[in-house]
Amino acid sequence: MTQRLDFDKIEIYLIRALQTLITERSVSRAAMRLQSTQPAVSAQLKRLRALTGDPLLVRTGNAMAPTETALRLLEPATRLLQDAERIFSPRAHQRAFEPLASSTTFRIAASDYLDPLFLPELVAQLKRVAPTVRIELLPLSGAFDYRRSLAAAEVDLVIGNWLKPPEELHLGRLMTDEIVCLVAEGHPVVRAANTRAWSPERYLACEHVAPMPLHAGAHGAAPGVIDEHLASIGVSRDVMVRSAHFSLIPLMVAQSLLVLTTGRLFCSRYVDALPVRIVRCPVPFPALTYYQLWHELTHASASGRWLREQVRDVARNLSGHGMLRRAQRVSA
């Protein structure tokens, strides 16, 4: 019973002292390597001798030499220390993600509000650098509880925009965008936008089109970031159409008097293809910020970290192209 209790009290540091003493063949040199004191290492050697029943180091002239038992213990002691490193080192136990050889399935829940080109570009990027991965894209809608799905590891990543992202999740900012209005080319506000007639009151009185709520359980007057902000300043707009198909809304705008309020980057993709115009929004809004969110479960995952880097790079690339395009239009 006593031997078992002694064995249970052996700590990793004592194994390191054993390996260092056998390797250095000197208490003083071992103390220097262990950043300890000679008396402390001498006490550890005494304890090791009692545990092994062997002197381990014996004096030969002016030096110390390891015994046959000590030499036999060197390899298992070294191996034990390496195994302990694998167990307790934050990085050692992580397998590197190899995109070219991986057949991982990535599940991403995303809105299409950021940019109509974002998801196609992301899929193209992932297939370019990791040709054998599988990708499942899920809609980010009010019926989808993304917080529960992340916590249950049912999705790896959620991409969208929130005024206040959930505090329990990790987040990475992808980009920010100016909030503008998209209207038909012949809409009366196109002329009014260049005068003082395009006022907050006139904006609020227009007929608006908006996406369905992103947040699970959202209802009432503030189902999205635009209406949330309007509610926070004590006003509301007249939303005549709500659509779950955000990418179809510009087509609806082009053929009606509906006003879409969203990010400039999204709107800019349609001005050359449809008879629509971008006008400033007369109500001041904070910048629209897009995030990727993930759970603590995948925070340290090599594949999760790699996926988030790909998402970030695609978003930055699209954002950069959008800014260049806007600059070209201003100069023209």
Describe this structure in words.
The chain has 332 residues and is an alpha/beta fold. Helix content is 42%, strand content 20%. It contains 13 helices and twelve strands. The protein has helices at residues 2-8, 12-24, 27-33, 38-52, 68-88, 118-129, 146-151, 188-192, 200-205, 225-232, 249-254, 264-268, 302-331, and strands at residues 57-60, 63-66, 105-110, 134-139, 157-161, 170-177, 179-184, 207-211, 238-243, 259-263, 276-280, 288-294. Strand 1 (57-60) and strand 2 form a beta hairpin. Helix 6 crosses helix 13. The longest helix has 30 residues, at 302-331.
Secondary structure elements and pairings:
Elements: H1 2-8, H2 12-24, H3 27-33, H4 38-52, E1 57-60, E2 63-66, H5 68-88, E3 105-110, H6 118-129, E4 134-139, H7 146-151, E5 157-161, E6 170-177, E7 179-184, H8 188-192, H9 200-205, E8 207-211, H10 225-232, E9 238-243, H11 249-254, E10 259-263, H12 264-268, E11 276-280, E12 288-294, H13 302-331
Parallel strand pairs: 3-4, 3-5, 8-9, 8-10
Antiparallel strand pairs: 1-2, 5-12, 6-12, 7-10, 7-11
Helix pairs in contact: 2-3, 2-4, 2-5, 3-4, 6-13
CATH topology assignment of the largest domain: D-Maltodextrin-Binding Protein, domain 2
Helix-and-strand structural type: alpha/beta
Number of strands: 12
Percent range of helical residues:
40-55%
Q: What would CATH call the homologous superfamily of the largest domain? A: Periplasmic binding protein-like II
